[in-house]
Design goal:
MerR family transcriptional regulator; mainly alpha; two-stranded antiparallel ribbon; DNA-binding; MerR-type_HTH_dom; MerR_fam; 11 helices; rod-shaped; DNA-bd_dom_put_sf
Length: about 250
Amino acid sequence: MAWSTREIAELAGTSLRAVRHYHEVGLLEEPERRSNGYKQYGVAHLVRVLRIKRLTDLGFSLSQIAAMGDDDDHPEEALRALDAELAATIERLQRARVELGLILRESVPTDLPSELAPAADAEMSETDRSLVVVMSRVVGPERLKAYADMLQNMPSDPTDQELDELPADADEATRQDLAERMAPFVRRINDEHPGLQDTGTESPRRSRFAATTMARAMQDLYNPAQLDVLQRVGKMMAEQEEPAED
């Protein structure tokens, strides 16, 4: 006794559309037709459909099943490859669950990497946080840890807000005054957190790439007056360190 397309789909636990698609992609041979033109499927067809369904349920794509050819009754090599792929997926999902739990438990913003979670409560402006997010993509784990520790333990400084609110057309005197008042605070931070230095040496990419990326981010986030103040602070820091190096 032969089965119709609908009957074989029901027996295999799949859909009419799936059976027809198997025909279209060459995974299932066309059966003979009755005198009335309807297809009549036999046991071999049912076994084939069940095998295809089993492999797709395991995670194989139809193109992968097609590539197996006649070996798809026990494709050991393909099964081992899929097992390794699934293991990697499970590991990735487990890591994602750990991070998700951290985000929910600590109310961490989703744009901050998990390494910076302890610093999530630090008072940062939107600009500073954006810069930290960019920085997290170009420095290594040890430097990232140093930044997290700095942000978590950084004392408040009134010049932070002044820099955030500094207009682009601030005059020379205002810029110099702000830079001079910022420099001691920046120097103190560097002294207390020496791990912040040479952030590019541990970068997942080249040190030059890290520096270029940070420079571009700063140009995008800060206005010309703010950038000028930061450059002045950097120059003051360098000038103070030169005698010690000599």
